[in-house]
């Protein structure tokens, strides 16, 4: 084992953990004040719920020995055999450290979905949904790509989670928004963010943590980690700039929320290709990502579905663009361990990327719909009309974010 790699991965793991509280602030500032703590709580409690699942059976199903190219087996239940020796995924760091790093990815994925049903789902329903969704959606898809499953065997490239995390969670978010329906007063009442400084702080924490997210996915303090670190920065900056400019052109005013959202869009878009593309192509990916995500958010109101915090527009559209862009711009001259994309003579890689994204979308949509129906039949999905009007902070948690 390499002590430098161990130190690097410990830091990267902690940085990815910080992304979930960052997401909580990002989302918490975007809702109305009466729902701020309830929204923060949905992200924050994932740190507890998913950690327990991961130890008991989650890591085993995601990264255990392959069963039918679909799921891992139960070899690692209770983290049996997952110790301080080098593990099968990486021979330079302890197996337990790889497990911890991947845990942080598993935590933030269901937290991302919460933005779609913010301000209207019961907390009990959210907890049950999170357990079921992590078990039957996230763990299999994670295994498909990173755990030895069929997409990994096919050659799909997903450096840090464009398909596993962003496309997967956004497909689920779309179903959640449609099944739960619109918030009371949507389209008639003003539903502006109540605390934009909080949202910008959350975006900054996400941006910082994303360096661990992407660079850490190299699993070593090496040249590929350096590449992923740099492409992450320039894509995020490009996304912030292009969203701001697009907004300036369409709405005549650039906004802070737009710049923060654009940065997140750029980060999402570069995630699948961070260690496979050059910095110049990373800028292009971020620029395109910022514009198309902005247009997707605008289209939401025209289509008529209430994705409260634009999970589909940012993580879905941005993740899909990033996955396909990896199939266009990936180069073995940049990363010999990757593959060439369409622009480097390998059109088949683009096809593989499209298959991976499409399969994940279909699987996540179908299973999420079933899970929501099960939850609705047991504890019920949505708070009552009066509870929604009063706000989820009081009705679900008996507390207030603001006492004035």
Q: What can you tell me about this protein's structure?
A:
The chain is mainly α and 404 residues long. The chain has one domain: Ammonium transporter fold (Orthogonal Bundle). It is 67% helix and 3% strand. The chain contains 15 helices and four strands. It has helices spanning 3-28, 36-44, 46-63, 95-113, 123-146, 150-154, 162-180, 196-215, 223-251, 256-270, 279-303, 311-329, 347-378, 385-390, 392-397; strands spanning 66-67, 71-72, 86-87, 90-94. The strands form two sheets. A two-stranded antiparallel sheet has the order 1-2. Strand 3 and strand 4 form a beta hairpin. Helix 3 (46-63) packs across helix 4. The chain starts with a helix and ends in a 7-residue tail after the last helix. The relative contact order is 0.15. The model has no long low-confidence stretch (mean pLDDT 97).
Shape by Cα distribution: globular
Report helical residue fraction: 55-70%
Strand arrangement within the widest β-sheet reads: 1-2
* Beta-strand share of residues: under 5%
The number of E-state strands comes to 4
Low-confidence stretches: none
Provide mean pLDDT, rounded. 97
CATH homologous superfamily assignment: Ammonium transporter AmtB like domains
Quickly count the domains.
1
Tally of separate helices = 15
Q: Helices and strands, in N-to-C order?
A: HHHEEEEHHHHHHHHHHHH
Structural class: mainly alpha
CATH first level: Mainly Alpha
Reported by name, the CATH topology is Ammonium transporter fold
């Amino acid at each position: 084992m390499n002590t430098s790699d161990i130190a690097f991965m410990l830091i990267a793991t902690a940085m990815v953990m910080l992304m979930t509280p960052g997401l909580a602030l990002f989302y918490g500032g975007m809702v109305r004040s009466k729902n701020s703590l309830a929204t923060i709580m949905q992200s924050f409690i994932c740190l507890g719920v998913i950690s327990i699942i991961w130890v008991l059976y989650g890591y085993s199903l995601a990264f255990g020995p392959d069963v039918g190219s679909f799921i891992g087996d139960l070899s690692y239940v209770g983290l049996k055999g997952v110790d301080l020796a080098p593990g099968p995924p990486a021979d330079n760091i302890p197996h337990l450290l790889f497990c911890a790093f991947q845990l942080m990815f598993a935590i933030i994925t269901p937290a991302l979905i919460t933005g779609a049903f913010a301000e209207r789902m019961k907390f009990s329903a959210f907890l049950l949904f999170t357990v079921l969704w992590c078990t039957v959606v996230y763990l299999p898809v994670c295994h498909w790509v990173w755990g030895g499953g069929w997409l990994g065997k096919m050659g799909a490239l997903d450096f840090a989670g464009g398909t596993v995390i962003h496309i997967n969670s956004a497909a689920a978010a779309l179903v959640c928004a449609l099944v739960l329906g619109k918030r009371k007063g949507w389209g008639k009442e003003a539903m502006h963010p109540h605390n934009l400084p909080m949202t910008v702080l959350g975006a900054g924490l996400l941006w910082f943590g994303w360096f661990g997210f992407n660079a850490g996915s190299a699993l070593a303090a090496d040249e590929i980690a350096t590449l992923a670190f740099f492409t992450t920065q320039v894509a995020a900056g490009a996304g912030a700039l292009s969203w701001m400019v697009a907004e300036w052109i369409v709405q005549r005013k650039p906004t802070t929320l737009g710049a923060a959202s654009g940065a997140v869009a750029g980060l999402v878009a570069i995630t699948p290709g961070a260690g496979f593309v050059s910095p110049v192509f990373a800028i292009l990916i971020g620029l395109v990502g910022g514009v198309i995500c902005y247009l997707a958010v605008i289209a939401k109101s025209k289509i008529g579905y209430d994705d409260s915090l634009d999970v589909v527009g940012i993580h879905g559209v941005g993740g899909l663009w990033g996955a396909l862009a990896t199939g266009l711009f990936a180069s073995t001259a940049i990363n010999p361990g990757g593959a060439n994309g369409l622009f480097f003579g390998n059109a088949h890689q683009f096809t593989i990327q499209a298959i991976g994204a499409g399969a994940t979308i279909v699987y996540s949509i179908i299973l999420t719909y079933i899970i929501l129906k099960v939850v609705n039949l047991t504890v019920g999905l949505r708070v009552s009309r009066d509870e929604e009007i009063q706000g989820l902070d009081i009705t679900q948690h008996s507390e207030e974010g603001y006492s004035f």
